């Protein structure tokens, strides 16, 4: 087993990082990501996609976290695999559109789905099954949330709707969402640590940088340890899904628990290092704080996944 990234993976991640650095706030950002092939990665070649797997997205997702990207890369990736498993006319209609960027398709547990207001097709998870909903333009209302860039809309499942996915396919979609979100959280957490280190070197107190104080050094170091422990777990979860390993669900839950904890810890430490200015909109820190808070609870929080790991191990 090799959990490292290939030069091609790193090059793909660097290309996305370059785009996000120069066009991070652009309104057409999803279209630019589509031009790089991001939504096409998990779409099979027969549907005009790249025919890749979850490992091919790892570098992209980590860079997305480092850039505090709010676009639904994970939700689109989960939708791609779900549609492939569903097959039939639904897959034939929507997978080529998703791969090309012509239309957005997202999948997430309900009732609140990120970016559903701009999606042509929404796959909503409810009670262990998935339902396909085609929102009418302007029919969904964006809800207030801690993270405005991940716009949430309530997507009701029509009464009497027939599930499009159940059983193993439905469960695997949740595992995929958890594992890929874990990778993104690792990127968020690492950027939060980097921001803390930078500010600790710039801010002076008692005539010297606050980063020279041992108490602060220990806090930042502990946060970094959490990030570096979470990274291989997230990589392993992506690998397990890509290879269809029997313990992929266990790996996904373990990774999401570790990454959620790491991101929340990094957010707390970075905010403490920055002090009162960290609470203001004047500083960009709030972008990564919001992403850590929202992604830590997406696809199940750390407590949920620790219970899942315990249930699996204890039988």
UniProtKB/TrEMBL annotation:
Domain Acyl-CoA dehydrogenase/oxidase N-terminal span(s) in chain numbering: 26-102
Higher taxonomy: Bacteria, Bacillati, Actinomycetota, Actinomycetes, Streptosporangiales
Domain of life, source organism: Bacteria
SUPFAM superfamilies linked to this entry: Acyl-CoA dehydrogenase C-terminal domain-like, Acyl-CoA dehydrogenase NM domain-like
InterPro entries with a match to the protein in the record: AcylCo_DH-like_C, AcylCo_DH/oxidase_C, AcylCoA_DH/ox_N, AcylCoA_DH/ox_N_sf, AcylCoA_DH/oxidase_NM_dom_sf
Name of the featured protein: Acyl-CoA dehydrogenase
Cofactor(s) in the UniProt record: FAD
Keywords: FAD, Flavoprotein, Oxidoreductase
Domain Acyl-CoA dehydrogenase/oxidase C-terminal: 169-313
Entry keyword Oxidoreductase: yes
Family membership noted in the UniProt record: Belongs to the acyl-CoA dehydrogenase family.
